[in-house]
Design goal:
Helix 2 packs across helix 6, helix 3 runs parallel beside helix 6 and helix 8 runs parallel beside helix 13. It contains 13 helices and no strands. It is globular. Helices cover about 75% and strands about 0% of the residues. The protein has about 300 residues and is mostly helical. It starts with a helix and ends with a helix.
Length: about 300
C-alpha cells in the first residue's frame, strides 16, 4: 500500500537535479562556427581522425599525382635543368584524371554525410546560416584541391633552382613562375571544386554522386571535343562546356603557353584569357546554384 507522500509526488511530478548547467564560456558567433565547419570539412576530405580506409583514397590519389614531380626532381638532380620532362603548363594535363577522381570521391563524402545522417537541423538551429554552411564546405574542397595541385608544382620549382650553382639567385630570377603556378591552381580548384560540390549537393547518395561527377566530367569532355571538331570557327567556344578542357586552357593562359596545333585548344583558337573568364563564371554559377539547393533542403 502506497503512502500519501508517494501518491502526492506522483500526482505533482518530481524534479531531478541531473547536473545541467548554463554555458558560461565565450560565445564566438558565426565566424567561429564557419571556421569549425571548414576545418571539419578538410578533415573529412583527407580522412583525418578516421580509419585507414578513409585516408586511402585521398592520400593515395595525391601521392600518385605527386609522382611526376618527384620523377622530374630526380632527373633534374642528375641531368640538370636541360631535362625538362614535365613543364609547369603541362602538369595539370598529366594529372587531370587524378584530380577528377579526387573530386568524385571526396565531394560526396563532404556533402552527403550530413544530409544522410540528418544533422543539418543541428547546424541550422545554431549561429550558422545555410549560406555559411555552403561556403564552409565549398572552401574546404577548393582549398584542399589547391593544396594537392600546388605542391607538385612547387616540388619541381624548388628542384630546378636548387641544382643551380647559385640557388638564391636562381630563385629570384625564376620567381615570376610562382604567380602562374598559384593562379592556375586556384582557378582550377574553383572550377572543379565548385562543380563537384554542386553535383554532390544535387545527388545526396554518395555512390550516385560519385558516378554523376565522373560522368559529367568525361561526357562533357567528349562532347565538347566532338563539337569543336565539327566546325572550329563556329563552335570553338564549345570547349568551355568541358570543365577539364577549360582547366587545361586556364593553365595555358596562366603560363602564356602555346597550345599544340592538333590539340583541342589549338583547334578551338580561343583567346587564352577566355578560359580564365569561363572558369570564373562557371565556378561562380555553381556556387550560386549550391546556395539555392541548400535554401530548399529540408532538415
Amino acid at each position: 500500500m502506497s503512502s500519501p507522500a508517494t501518491d502526492a509526488s506522483r500526482a505533482g511530478g518530481v524534479i531531478y537535479d541531473i547536473g545541467y548547467r548554463h554555458y558560461e564560456g565565450e560565445r564566438r558567433g558565426r565566424l567561429a562556427v564557419v571556421a569549425a565547419l571548414y576545418w571539419q570539412g578538410v578533415r573529412t576530405i583527407f580522412g583525418i581522425g578516421r580509419g585507414e580506409r578513409a585516408k586511402l583514397v585521398p592520400l593515395g590519389l595525391f601521392a600518385i599525382s605527386l609522382l611526376p614531380a618527384i620523377m622530374q626532381a630526380g632527373v633534374t638532380g642528375i641531368a640538370g635543368n636541360a631535362a625538362n620532362l614535365v613543364p609547369h603548363d603541362r602538369y595539370f594535363v598529366m594529372t587531370s584524371v587524378l584530380i577528377a577522381l579526387f573530386c568524385a570521391a571526396q565531394a560526396p563524402e563532404l556533402m552527403g554525410g550530413d544530409r544522410q545522417q540528418r544533422v543539418l537541423t543541428l547546424y541550422f538551429s545554431r549561429a550558422v546560416r545555410r549560406i555559411d554552411y555552403v561556403l564552409a564546405r565549398w572552401l574546404s574542397l577548393v582549398s584542399s584541391l589547391f593544396v594537392i595541385m600546388i605542391i607538385p608544382q612547387l616540388v619541381i620549382f624548388i628542384a630546378r633552382n636548387m641544382v643551380d650553382p647559385d640557388p638564391w639567385a636562381a630563385f629570384a630570377g625564376d620567381a615570376h613562375v610562382l604567380l602562374p603556378i598559384a593562379g592556375s591552381a586556384f582557378l582550377i580548384a574553383l572550377l572543379l571544386g565548385g562543380l563537384a560540390v554542386l553535383l554532390a549537393s544535387l545527388v545526396p547518395r554518395r555512390i550516385y554522386a560519385t558516378a554523376a561527377i565522373i560522368g559529367v566530367l568525361l561526357a562533357s569532355t567528349a562532347v565538347s571535343a566532338a563539337v569543336v571538331s565539327l566546325d572550329r570557327e563556329r563552335f570553338g567556344h564549345a570547349v568551355l562546356a568541358s570543365p577539364l578542357l577549360t582547366s587545361e586552357g586556364v593553365a595555358i593562359w596562366m603560363f602564356d603557353a602555346v597550345p599544340r596545333p592538333r590539340s583541342i585548344h589549338g583547334r578551338a583558337s580561343l583567346e587564352p584569357r577566355t578560359y580564365g573568364l569561363g572558369a570564373g563564371a562557371i565556378a561562380l554559377g555553381a556556387l550560386m546554384l549550391v546556395v539555392g539547393v541548400y535554401r530548399r533542403v529540408e532538415t
